[in-house]
Specification:
Elements (H helix, E strand, L loop, with lengths): L3 E4 L7 H11 L4 E4 L1 H7 L6 H23 L3 E4 L7 H10 L4 E4 L4 H8 L8 H14 L3 E4 L2 H11 L9 E2 L22 E7 L7 H12 L5 E7 L5 H7 L8 E4 L8 H9 L3 E2 L6 H5 L3 H8 L4 E4 L15 E3 L3 H13 L1 H18 L2 H17 L5
Parallel strand pairs: 1-2, 1-3, 3-4, 4-5, 5-6, 7-8, 8-9, 10-11, 11-12
Helix pairs in contact: 1-15, 2-3, 3-4, 5-6, 8-13, 12-14
Length: about 375
């Protein structure tokens, strides 16, 4: 496929670069247009110069947008860029050009309902909702599972497109960021490792409550929490100060970009977690942590959710429980008493990862999606 226009002001780590790499591999002629390139790079000044530069950058971007859309055969809106969809959809419709949206997340749900950084009924909140609806209705839609894209359609109050949506799985480079994948130690103390941004969606409070209940009966384990970002982290550390629990270890120095997080998980983790938040969003959201564990030959404790049931190997390669403290404690006890099964499931997870969730598989799947679109004639 030639003349693909890739548009994105934000880049989801690994996902968009991998797709652009696949476009290059296929010898496709493509153009990458980023609003942030013009607005951010031109606004690295101070005071009123910043405002003028940002305004100028926005004008330049919007002048170039129709030109590049006109000369393209397909417009690909990369992950987490729904907020840019309105002018894209307008010009694509004017010039009868099809649009492929990597939906990834609902910006309305993420910003207004989960992060709560934008009021739902504010002007920006309403604009996010409109943008999500417009993105959802584009000619081609791509997501990493069908249950969440179905949920997004329901929450936006528009027709479900889950059956016609292309599925390109979550994938990770965790296995490429370590020298050698180490087998879990499976010794006492058994090491459970969680990492994330500590949003309520991630369910860290539920996880810690379950371990506190577990600690009343036994102490042959450690729980390591690796916080990425500031979201809700300080509140948690205030409620759980260092040394308050002998089995609890909190870390704030590990990061994905420099490889320190993958290396820590590779060296210390015996088992990881999926999301354990409660509420409607937590029922459908996908979990990068699961794929990252699988990449390093670790199994996970999975919450029994609609989204997690789509993970290949859900029935026999993971430990699954309900999002309730008493259910988690029962499963944790079983894990501690059956370390051999943990190792066996971890090996299966690694095999499944290679076949279904690796970076190479993600690139191949994206290439197949482009070929399917091309074979359909690229009609708007």
């Amino acid at each position: 496929m030639d003349r693909v226009l890739v548009i994105g002001s934000r880049c989801v780590t690994n996902r968009t670069p991998n797709f652009i790499s696949e476009l290059s591999r296929q010898a496709t002629t493509f153009t990458f247009l980023s609003k942030a390139f013009y607005t951010d790079s031109l606004s690295r000044q101070t005071g009123w110069i910043t405002v003028l530069a940002s305004f100028f950058g926005t004008v330049v971007y919007n002048l170039l947008l129709p030109f590049f859309i006109l000369r393209s055969r397909l417009i690909f809106v990369s992950a987490s860029n729904n907020f840019d969809i309105l002018p894209i959809a307008f010009w694509a419709r004017m010039f009868r050009k099809p649009v492929l949206v990597d939906y990834y997340v609902s910006i309305f749900e993420w910003s207004c309902q989960l992060m709560k950084i934008v009021p739902e009924h504010s002007l920006r909140g309403r604009l996010y909702r409109i943008s999500d609806r417009v993105a959802y209705r584009q000619k081609y839609l791509m997501h990493f599972n069908r249950s969440e894209i179905r949920h997004i359609g329901d929450s936006l109050g528009i027709a479900d497109r889950s059956t016609e949506c292309f599925v390109c799985p979550l994938f990770t480079r965790f296995d490429q960021m370590v020298k050698t994948i180490e087998c879990p130690k499976l010794q006492k103390p058994f090491r459970f490792v969680w990492w994330g941004s500590s949003l309520p969606l991630h369910g860290i409070s539920l996880i810690v409550s379950a371990f506190k209940a577990l600690a009343d009966a036994r102490r042959d384990f450690e729980l390591h929490l690796c916080f990425m970002g500031d979201s809700h982290r300080d509140a948690f550390l205030t409620e759980n100060p260092a040394g308050s629990c002998s089995w609890l270890r909190c870390h704030t120095k590990y990061a994905l970009k420099d490889g320190s997080l993958p290396n820590f998980v590779n060296q210390y983790a015996d088992l990881g977690f999926s999301h354990f938040g409660v509420g409607e969003q937590a029922e459908y959201v996908g979990s990068n942590k699961v794929v990252e564990c699988m990449a390093l030959g670790r199994t996970c404790l999975l919450s029994d959710t609609t989204s997690n049931r789509e993970i290949i190997g859900f029935d026999d390669s993971f430990f699954v429980c309900q999002r309730k403290v008493e259910e988690m404690v029962k499963t944790l006890v079983y894990i501690l008493d059956n370390p051999e099964e943990v190792g066996e499931k971890g090996l299966r997870c690694r095999e499944i990862f290679i076949k279904h969730y690796s970076e190479a598989v993600g690139a191949h799947r994206f290439g197949a999606i482009l070929n399917t679109i091309q074979n359909q004639g690229l009609e708007c």
